Amino acid sequence: MTCRRGGDHLKRNVLPGLPLSLGITLFYVGLIVVLPLAALVFKAASLGPAEYWAIVSSPRAVASYRVTVLSALVATAFNLVFGLALAWVLVRYRFPGRRIVDAIVDLPFALPTAVAGIALTTLFASNGWFGSLLAPLGIKVAYTPLGIMVAMCFTSLPFIVRTVQPVLEDLDPALEEAAQSLGGSDSAIFVRVILPLLMPALLAGLSLSFARSLGEFGAIIFIAGNQPMETEITALLAFIRLEEYDYQAAAAIASVLLITAFLMLAATNLLQARALRYTARS
Prior knowledge:
Strand content: under 5%
Low-confidence stretches: 1-10
Order of helices and strands: HHHHHHHHHHHHHH
Shape: globular
Radius of gyration: 23 Å
Helix content: over 70%
Number of helices: 14
Oligomer: single chain
Mean pLDDT: 83
Number of strands: 0
Distance between the termini: 44 Å
């Protein structure tokens, strides 16, 4: 009986201080995350249904949704291909400067977004290093929707690389060797063996990349041109309403982004759960 009680006692105290640490964590999550979101929802809910709909469905707001969502989708699709390729190269190959490239991937996390926006504008302006090369081809980046996509790609790329890279590092080489012994080509091995194992991490990275692109502000406003109906993103429109002291309209517009992010995360979690069940069956 004494041993059993001792065992029960050890089981109950596997994580010493759990109630205190959990309480502190929930307190800070509530203070930093839940409280601001609740204030946003409360401010938007203070509007009547007709007034709320008039604000969020105005032509200028709808145009900002279109610019923001389409740019985020293109940036996420680009990051899917380039980020997966970059993670693959960093994991599977050894080359001079590999550590430098690996460190540069995290640069958007450390660099203030406003600085990133100014740097991208300088590079892609018509007289910039890259812009001067693209101008003769008739390609204009700065102050166009293409500039918005470039800024979104820059700020959201690390999410895909850093979620896929650890999974690639932990893949069992025996799986690929077995597929090769059965006569599988490199492309077939990637599609049928490696990609299903990467899918949960890839979906997580895609959702984070898309969410970051939807809410990006600092890196975009300098390169976008901010022309209403053309290059104005939703976050900027909400900021403009704040500057006009129209707090209810700002909260209403921001709530659209909030709802979109929640729906996207819910769909991603559902897809991740299905991908994990498929991987477990395999």
